[in-house]
Amino acid sequence: MSDNVDVSDLKSNALKLKVESDLTCRLRMHVGKRQYDAYGKLFNLSDHLMIHRWKHRGENPFKSDVCDKSISQRSTLTEHYRTDTREKPFTCEVCQKWFHNMGNLIRHRLIHTGEKPYRCDVCDKSFRQRSTLTVHQRTHTGEKPFLCDFCVKKFNNNGDLIKHRRTHTGEKPFRCEVCVKSFSQKSTLNAHWRTHTGENPFLCDVVIL
């Protein structure tokens, strides 16, 4: 680097570029200029488009070095690390339940308030989360935008696609801490866990006289 270069000028230019980039992003949101297209959905930023494409393809390029779980977004990986470390820094002020991230706490609070702010404009059914409403609306439209790259089977939500792909890959990411047996779905692990604890949470309500 030349001795004549002023470090303060470099910092100023870097800040200017960041401000211009942030301003461009904000302007696109205000004026509705969406330059990137995928599966018929438009995006303001190419990064958002890339993440969206990963979801359709079932790609998860960010991997936890603790449990080897793969995730589609770096920010989500940061939150996932808290599940590995059991860190729960966010607390509900009503029931004192702890959460890994603020988003889960906000959604949890709706349980206490009973609020369901997201309403289907077809059947008027209401939901606590926008994502749940989006999946529900596909039951009306028949849309199945998530495509399996092994057998071309389609799904209306990414979660079902991820579960389905494990039937092809043989992946079993949910492991029992007692006997180290692994399962492809968390619900199956929960049912297995009861064989160790002896828990029987399901009560028959039929009375035999």
From TrEMBL:
The keyword Transcription applies. Keywords: DNA-binding, Metal-binding, Nucleus, Repeat, Transcription, Transcription regulation, Zinc, Zinc-finger. The keyword Nucleus applies. InterPro entries: C2H2-ZF_Transcription_Reg, Znf_C2H2_sf, Znf_C2H2_type. Its main location: nucleus. It comes from the Eukaryota. One of its GO terms (cellular component) is nucleus. It holds the Pfam family zf-C2H2. It is found in: Nucleus. Gene3D superfamilies: Classic Zinc Finger. GO terms for molecular function: DNA-binding transcription factor activity, RNA polymerase II-specific; RNA polymerase II transcription regulatory region sequence-specific DNA binding; zinc ion binding. Residues 62-89, 90-117, 118-145, 146-173, 174-201 form the C2H2-type domain. Belongs to the krueppel C2H2-type zinc-finger protein family. This is C2H2-type domain-containing protein. It comes from Acyrthosiphon pisum.
